[in-house]
Structures are given as structure tokens and as C-alpha cells.
Write a structure and sequence with these properties.
The structure is a homotetramer of 266-residue chains. By secondary structure, chain A is of the alpha/beta class. Chain A is built from 6 helices and 12 strands. A 9-stranded mixed sheet of chain A has the order 1-3-6-7-2-8-12-9-10, with helices on both faces. Chain A has a two-stranded antiparallel sheet with strand order 4-5. Chain A is globular. Chains A and B meet through strand 4, strand 5 and helix 6 of A and helix 2, strand 8, strand 9, strand 11 and helix 4 of B.
């Protein structure tokens, strides 16, 4: 496997679909939110993305079955005939932060794929680390085009979550949540990123809930949030086991590290 | 050399061959097991795999002869006319854990190659690090497809080694032992990974023996384990010398490391 | 996005243009100088360079609008009909210092692009770290060809800034400021690098001023330096916010680091 | 520049040339030896190798002139009509040790190039780090093929330097000195690596002398060693200046490092 590939399981016809991204990041906020949305909407998996830029490992799933690292595309057909359909992506991981070209390749492949279904709007979900939280986590919003600020503010005006719009410059959105908007913009797509405040050290169900509330408000959907905390606990447990095993296997296949001192350049 | 290549020395006709992998990893369990199997079965080397993703060095072999880093394919023709033949791979190293795309490239090339001989089943061998051992090392099993659990459990039911089947989710198999199954699955191959418990700090002959006992049970073979401990001692000694020389040469060709503090992003 | 691309917004006709580079580096000297020059000359943006070798993130600009990391080309048409026009490049960042091939790719693409407008001369601007400063920052000069030393010395002879010409060998110019000259030389281009002395820990307006004074002397231009210090303060504030958010997001997407001790090579 | 290139300045006709490599490594032994050989023989530069895998910088040479990082090929025509000619390579650096594929690419390109001149034999020179030295540095020899041991031992039998032939297995030769032999062997080339013992912390003229004495014995040449120590001192001074400047420029262009603790894998 020399480049990122998408295995297509089904080719649904979708009506003006909104592409929603929730991949692992700060507090696993985006991933939790996406998985919850998929489950509550009974969204259907229709494609898998594999990449040589993902970690070189398989995950052990239930009953000792292994699976290659992947991201997964789900679709949801809106029962309201005038409503818009959804494509949701979540997955095991993002490309490692030391591999920027890998990120650009994977995100480019995602945009290629969702374009095939006529996608124009993108909503990305994630966490936004803060040193301390006061009350319910707020949500930071950022958009592809200045003229969209009013459009989204209108949709979010009755949201029970406080949404922060920054007027000054500064800050960065790292990874797919940012790149999908930035690269999408070069292809005439538009959208919004919604980042929930999080302390970041746990799988953060509260932050995911804040983000999901804002997303559902934009989409005009209702989603039950009851199962969110339970899902966060399960995710945390699985993660712990993966990391233990992974760490041990990585340690023993490293070449010897040159010592930090005393390196001549030539 | 810009990509992974396979030098073919011979093209044997093989009967429904099982592909067995034992490359360096935790406790060198997989490599030891594969080398022992090759020696006891008098398997024949028929191909070498070279990759620009291997360490940029040669190893010094006996009598001051150097050889490029490589992996080696061996075949064994089953004397029982109804039995299945074997392809066994072992080698000097796996791709560095910092180079995920290299792993995917090398494992993809391995699968391309063994497919040419009609391979459908894969058995991968390795170590599984545990903080302490009680009694003989147990073996952790993981498979490509859920419906194979019963198939392999039946074959392993009289194995003198305790085989662990995990029902819950969590854990990862890093490197070729995992990728061969995960990527093989995408090509309609199937198989099992057998990982021997190991403290991981030594070349672990006991763990390799546990794994080999399980493998031979699946294959219906008998293999003498007497020479395994002696082989572990020799391997340990060679490794020590390679690392000493390698470490010194790497240290002196590094560019100066930027200091950890005080890095501006732009 | 699999390689560096240039999005062209306009194709101006330029008269024997000088290509001036000011990208982020020590003390942000080059970037500050380039941005100031662009603003004071009212130079016009005509192309954007994007690269998968830039950081995988978007920056948050004013009013919560995101933009992909990029470098930007500006042109300035000399009102003097006999004068030479300018192409100026600045941007969010350079390729990471761990990705040398990325640097060569990006700089090669820059040279391809400016060649289309007939560029032969290159002036690169940057900082040169010194442990302490005495008086106004001096400027270190380096050129592509020995026969140019006299040419540039003549132009710089009335410069109010002290320009250092080194007679002995030793030293390196890292990144675009160096590569543009080195790679340009292979394409029969010529030019000079002007590096302002800087302590390097701040956004250094004084050093940028020294460099700009030398550059304007070479070009025969007058540029007002009043706004330079204010610009440095703003840049510093934006940078601080980007780094805070970026650091948090990077920390939470890293795979577990193998521990430094106890790595076997195979 | 997307791959390694060779700029050819002249295409000499060479008689069965021996290819001699001396690139930077432990104690700069190989580079010093190669440069001394080039100077004493008045060898002629006929090609330059550039690579995107070299450090992204230019070096500042005498009189403030910059040059891209490179390796250089020299030839020497043997005045003895029956003698063999030489191709010697030295240069500013080797590919960084973190970039194995870059090493394979660059060394492959070197072998492509010298093959065009009919090269079959390769001699590589380098250092071999030891914790302490007793008397004159000895030289460790390693060859491509076992049947060559006798051939080279015969040539070296009257060498004033002690040459070590190892009978046991273990050890590695990292970088071009090793890869040229390992990859050359796959192209039916043959040769020897000569590594001088060195403490490694200095530019080591004594070790370079030992290696050169062995090389000249194999080639049947006489070379005056007087200037070797002076050259070592000069090299050390230039290196120091390059590193100082390089280190400062690298530090200020790094993206923020994720902290070592607290990395989630997804």
C-alpha cells in the first residue's frame, strides 16, 4: 500500500450532503461526538479509508479479531424529503503529527471522495484545550469565509451552548478539523469548525455534548445525549489497552538512538 | 534503490502454502522461532527482500564479509503428498517504527510476492510483553476473521501451551505481525497471529518455544526444540556487537539537534 | 495535495524583476522586513504557494476565518520606467527543519515560478544570531558568485548600516534564505543574502530595519521605517496565540513515544 | 529538486577505475583521507552530486560566497600506462541518519554514475570508534565476498599498519561506507571497507593516516602524509563555525515540540 485508498462498500445517492468530521484529537471530543451521532441516527457505513500514513499496526477487536487502522464514512438519509443528507467520518486515528505530508494526502483523499456525492458544506468537530473550565464547556467557532459568520450565528442563536466568535487574529486548528476547511476552501467548499472547550486529559463527554448540541442546531436535528457518558468510559478503557501493548511493541523495534550530545554535522 | 525489491533465487512450485512470519520484535520471539523452524525443517532460501526503508547499513558477517540489511524467504516442501507446503520469512530487521509508510510498503511487497505462490493462509509470530511471567509463557492469539476462532481453537485444543483468546476489545499488534493479517485481509487472505508472553529484555527462547509449539500444532508438524536456547545465546551476542558499532557511527553523522526549548513555529 | 502548488491570481508583466525573500526565521527578521516592504510599497499579491510540507493546520484570522498555511508572492511595479520591478515572497512559515526534501521541493517550486517572470537576481533576508549586540545590528552579506562581492559592495558603500563581508570560510545559511541562492546558482541566477544580527528571542524590529536599509540601498529605493516597531509587537501577539493552541492540539494526537532506553535494533 | 542529481563537468575515459569513498563520519576519518588523497594526487573534479536529502542549507565559503551542500567526484589518471585510474568521492555531508531511504537513493545514484565509467572495485574509508587507543590506530577491514579476504590480505601483508580481519559475526558499517559495498554487491561489484580506529571526538588525522596507508598499499601508490595534520586543524575550525550558525537557525524554525508526557494515540 503506497498511498491512501478508499474502499467503497456502497454508493448511496445523497441529497446535498453535509460532511461532518469527528476524528481523534483533544479529549477525543470530535470522535465521541461523531460516534454518538452515527449511533443515534443509525447512520450506515459505506466506505473505509486506509492509509500508509496511519500507524503500522492492527487493533484487536472483540473475540480476538484484528483490523487495520482506518477511518470510516457513514451516510444518513434524512427522512424529511426536503432535508439534507449527511456523510459522517470518524476513525481510529489521524496521521501522526510528525507527518504533515501524510495529513495533506489523507485529507485531500477525503475531499475527493465526498465530492463524488456532491458535498459542498463541511462541519468539523474537535476539542479546544483550556487550562480550566467554568460551567458547561463553551464551543469555539471558526469558518471558511467571513460572509458565513452571520449565516452560522443566525442558526446558532438559540443554541443552549455558548458559542465563541473571535474577532481578533491568532490561533490554529491542527489536523483534519482544520485542513478539511482550509483545503476544502481551495475547492469552493465552505463550512465551520466547532471546537469544544476541554481540559484534554480525559475522554471528554461533556465537551462532546456541547459540540453536538451546536452541530444539531445547525443541521436542525434532535439527538438524545443520554448514552454519551457511557460511551466515553468504554472508549477510555479500550484506549488504555491499545496504548499499553503498542508502547511495548514500539520500544523493542527502535534502532538505537544517537545520544543527544556530540553530534557532528558532517 | 528507491523502493522495496524482492530478489528471487528460485521459483518453487508450492502446494497451498502457509506463509509464516517471524521478524525481529519483542524478545526477538518471532525471529528466533522462524530461524529455528527453518533450521529444523531444512527449509530452502529462495528469495531476498531489500528495502530503502531498512537501516542504511551493512552487517558484518563471519570472516569480515558484509551484507545489506534484508529479509529472507524460505520454502519447505511437505514430504506428505497431501500436506501443505510452507513459506517462512525472517530477517535482520523490520522498518523503523517512525516510518509507518515504509512498513506498509514492505508488508505490501511481501504479500504481493507470496501471492504469486498461491498463499492464502498467514501465521505471524511475535512476543507480547508482560510485566511478570508465571510458569511457561502463554500465547496470545488473534485472527483475521471471527469465524476462524473455532477453526484455530479446534487445532490448538491439545496444545501443551495455554492459548489466550480475548473476548473484549483493546490492544494492538504493531509491525509486520499485525500488518500482514490486516493487509492480507483486504486481499482475501486469512490467518492467525501468535504472540508469546515475554518480559522482553532478553532474546527469549522460552517464549519462542511456546509460540513454535502452537504453530506446529496448527500445521500438524513435529519440531525438536533442543537447539533453541543455544541459538538465543548466539543471537544475543551478535546483536550486542552490531549495536555497539552502529550506535557510534550514528552519533557522529547527526546534524546538530535544535534544543528543546525556545522553538518558534514560524 | 501531494506536492507543492502555486495558485496564480494574476500574471503581471514585470521588467527584469528582483526576487526578494523574507520568510520566518531567526527573530522573524526576514518576514518582518518583507511585510514592511510590501506595505510601504503597496505591493500587490498575485500568487499563493501551498505545500503538503507545511504544518498540517489552518490559522485563525480576524473574525474567526481560517486559512491554510501558505507563502505569498507580491509584485511591485517600479514607477520609474527605467527601474526594475520587484517580486516579494513572505508567508506563514517555512518547511519544518526535520524535512530537508520538503525544503528543496518548496524552494525549487519558488524558483520555477519566479523564472516565468524573467527573474535573474535574488535578494534573501533573514536574521543572524549573535550572543550580544553592540549598537545598531550589523548585516552579514553572502553572495552566489565571488565576482559579485565588488558589485554589491559598491552599491552598499553609503549604507548607514555596517555590512560584514567574511573573508574566511565557515558558517551556513539554513532554509530558504540559503537554498534560494544555492539552488538559484544552479539555474544561472545570482544574488545576495543579507542577515541582520539578532539576539533571536524576540520579533526583532531593529534587525529588520538594518536589513531593509541595506536592501533599499541595493534597489535604490526609499522606504519609511516608522511602522516597523508596531508591526513587530502585533506579530508577536498573534504568534503567541497560534503557538498556544497548536501546542495543545499536537500533544494530544501523538502516538506513544518509545522510551529512550532499551531499544533493540532488531 | 525532487531527487538526487549528478552534474557532470567532464566525461574522462578511465581505465578500470577503482572507486574510493571518503565522506564525513566518525572522526571525519574518511573525508580527511579522501581530501588528502585528492590533493596529493592532483585529482580533477569532474562531477557534483546534489540531493534533496542533504541538509537544507548553503555553506559560506571564502569571500562570503555560498554553495549548496554537495558531494564531489574527482578522477585521477594513472601515469603508469598499465596502472588503474581512480574515482574519488568526498563531500560536505552524508544524508541524515534519520533518513534511511535518502541514503539508499544517494548511494544508488553514486553507483549508477561510477558504473558509467566501468567501475568494478570499490574501496570505502571511514572511522571505527574505540573507547581507547593503544599505539598507532589499527584498521578494521571488511569485504564484499569471502573469496576476497585472501586477495586483500596479500596486498596488505607489508602494510606498516595493523589490519584487523574479524572471524566472528557481529558489527555494522553505517552509511555510505557500508551501503556502497552492500548495494554494489547486488550489481556484481566488489570491494573493501577500511575503518581506522578513532576516539571519534576530534577530526582525526592519525586515523586517516592509517587508513590511507592501507589504501595506498592496495593501490600500489605512494602518498606524502605531511600535510594531513594541518588539514585536520583547518577542517575542525570550519566545522565549528558552520555548526554554530546552523544550530541557531535550526532552533528558530522548529514547530513547537509536543511534550513527552501525555500523548494519546488517537
Amino acid at each position: 500500500m503506497k498511498e491512501t485508498i478508499v474502499h467503497v462498500l456502497e454508493r448511496p445517492r445523497l441529497r446535498d450532503p453535509v460532511f461532518i468530521e469527528g476524528l481523534p484529537g483533544i479529549g477525543l471530543v470530535g470522535k465521541l461526538a461523531a460516534e454518538h451521532l452515527i449511533q443515534e441516527l443509525n447512520a450506515v457505513k459505506f466506505a473505509e479509508l486506509y492509509s500508509p500514513h496511519f500507524m503500522h499496526q492492527v487493533l484487536i477487536k472483540k473475540n480476538s479479531v484484528v483490523e487495520l487502522m482506518k477511518n470510516e464514512f457513514y451516510y444518513w438519509k434524512n427522512p424529511d424529503e426536503k432535508g439534507r443528507d449527511l456523510i459522517i467520518i470518524t476513525g481510529d486515528q489521524q496521521v501522526a503529527p510528525t507527518d504533515s505530508p501524510g495529513h495533506y494526502e489523507v485529507v485531500g483523499r477525503m475531499l475527493d471522495f465526498v465530492s463524488e456525492f456532491g458535498t459542498r458544506e463541511i462541519i468539523t468537530m474537535g476539542g479546544y484545550q483550556v487550562p480550566e473550565l467554568q460551567g458547561e464547556p463553551r464551543v469555539l467557532a471558526a469558518v471558511t469565509h467571513e460572509e458565513l459568520v452571520g449565516y452560522y450565528q443566525e442558526k446558532l442563536k438559540d443554541c443552549s451552548v455558548e458559542v465563541i466568535w473571535r474577532e481578533d487574529e491568532g490561533g490554529a486548528i491542527v489536523g483534519a478539523a482544520g485542513l478539511l476547511l482550509g483545503m476544502g476552501k481551495l475547492r469552493s467548499m465552505y463550512g465551520i469548525s466547532l471546537l469544544g472547550e476541554s481540559l484534554g486529559y480525559i475522554v471528554d463527554a461533556k465537551s462532546a455534548k456541547s459540540v453536538l448540541l451546536a452541530v444539531t442546531r445547525i443541521l436542525g436535528l434532535e439527538v438524545d445525549m443520554t448514552a454519551l457518558e457511557e460511551r466515553a468510559r468504554e472508549t477510555e478503557e479500550i484506549l488504555r489497552k491499545v496504548q499499553e501493548m503498542q508502547r511495548a511493541m514500539l520500544e523493542q523495534t527502535m534502532p538505537p538512538a544517537p545520544e543527544e550530545e556530540d553530534r557532528g554535522y558532517l
